[in-house]
Amino acid sequence: MDLTTTELTIALASGLVVSSYVGLIVMPAWRCYGRMWEKVAASFLTLFILATLLGVGTAIGLAVVWSYDQYA
């Protein structure tokens, strides 16, 4: 199976996003609480942070693609 450059780039970017999300957002939220239900709740609430970051990144990416021909 041959991977294109685009597929490889998307796979590496996805791995970077997941590892950064776990290391920088989930793990600190997990360590802040002592009870298991608090840790699970904090981990669930970090999904809203992930959704916001993905939404903002998508919006910025679409803005760049939309206005690329004007400034290129």
What does this structure look like?
Helix 1 (5-31) packs antiparallel against helix 2 (36-71). This protein starts with a helix and ends with a helix. With 72 residues, the chain is an all-alpha fold. The protein has helices spanning 5-31, 36-71. 88% of the residues lie in helices and 0% in strands.
Rg calc: 17 Å
Overall outline: elongated
Report the β-strand fraction as a percent range.
under 5%
Class of secondary structure makeup: mainly alpha
Low-confidence stretches: none
Number of domains: 1
Q: Share of helix among residues?
A: over 70%
Biggest sheet layout: none
What series of H and E elements makes up the topology?
Answer: HH
- How far apart the termini lie comes to 35 Å
Mean pLDDT: 92
How many beta-strand runs? 0
Number of H- or I-type helical stretches = 2
